[in-house]
Amino acid sequence: MEKASKFVGKAHDFILNERHVQKIDALIDGKPYFPELIEIFPSNICNHHCTFCISAESNSAKSFIDTEVFYNTIREAAQGGVSKIRLCGGGEPLLHKSIVNFITFASQHIESVSLITNGSLMTDAMREAIVNHCNDVRFSIDAGNAEVYAKMHGTSHKSFDKTLHHISKLIKSKGKAITPLVELSFVATSENIDSLPQFIEIATTLQPNSVNITTNTLAPLKSQIAMYKKVKAILNNHTGSNVPISANISHSDAFEETSEPCPAFLLYGVVTSKGTYYSSCHHVERNINSLGTIHRSYTLKTLLSDPKVIQKQLKYAFGKDVKTEKLYKHPYNEKLLELMVNSKQTLDKVTTWMSKNITLKID
């Protein structure tokens, strides 16, 4: 591991800090590990049927998260040092009848609350809760006109204007407040790429804080790269927007091909609508490596305190499935390693654990 630090370089702005390193230190000592961010799926049911949805094939058993499981999870997450909760899916979060209470309760216990939604079901009460209690909200739009939207989202044409109206009202309600940060997202596919310029025009009119364009995680990596180039070409020819626009390639395909664990494994936790807990969103997508299922009498803290679960977390993060040093070149891990190098005690502990459990090629 002495050579691990050579991969430390520029990293993206992940929510990493010394506290995160201290948590890893404690995990190696056999203590419960609460990640920095936990995603919670209020529901696996959706009112849209998006062609690119990674959850489309796993929604056969319909479920909503139990309200007490949600509240207990938030309380214990706060006690465990979780700094951010993201309500997403799974399904459409706004379908849960308690979503307004969920957002409000989470904000009272957790430093940062985030929401990902298609926005079509947003009521006045939901909008008020988002404006007053969320730090950021992402709206999945994925189209520049009603016809493409209906095709991409598997819904009616009129839902497009309705959704944009909801978003416009929220942005106006927010006023000059810094939060919530509002982002519009666009998953680029062959079906909607021609409407991307229209989408950018819509964003310019609505004035969200940012726009994110990504490739389809279900597409082969080569196809994603080709689509990314098309996106960049359109953006290069469309310079009139004053809204910050980012474009990136989805990376799930790479994990399917290499069987490597998630590079941000020790950053995330995921609680599904059924209470199943994963330490990586990639594990949820592939339905592998669940750490257990929480319910009213078996809470998140109980699960994460289980010695077997602690060992699984270490294995999935630093374990035998790691084939090459490529994992350590990911920006998340570059930043993590930088912090660990600054905390030699933790780096030494990781090194010792790895030397006993795996053989890892570093150079």
- Sequence stretches where pLDDT stays below 50 over 5 or more residues: 1-15, 253-261, 320-329, 358-363
Task: Label the overall shape.
Answer: globular
The ordered string of helix (H) and strand (E) elements is HEHEHEHEHHEHEHEHEEHEHHHH
* Neighbour order of strands in the largest sheet: 7-6-5-4-3-2-1-8-9-10
Name the CATH class: Alpha Beta
- Name the CATH superfamily classification: Aldolase class I
Give the end-to-end Cα distance, rounded to a whole number of Å: 10 Å
CATH topology: TIM Barrel
Structural class: alpha/beta
Task: Tally the beta strands.
Answer: 10
Cα-based radius of gyration, to the nearest Å: 21 Å
* Count of distinct structural domains: 1
Number of helices: 14
Question: Helicity, in percent?
Answer: 40-55%
Q: What is the average per-residue confidence, as pLDDT, rounded to a whole number?
A: 82
Specify the CATH architecture: Alpha-Beta Barrel
What summary fits the major beta sheet? 10 strands, mixed
| Beta fraction | 5-15%
Distinctive features:
363 residues; alpha/beta; TIM Barrel; 10-stranded mixed β-sheet; 14 helices; globular; disordered N terminus; disordered C terminus
Would you write up a description of this structure?
- This protein has 363 residues and is an alpha/beta fold.
- It has one domain: Aldolase class I (TIM Barrel), CATH 3.20.20.70.
- Helices cover 42% and strands 13% of the residues.
- Strand 8 and strand 9 form a beta hairpin.
- Helix 3 (99-109) packs parallel to helix 4 (124-133).
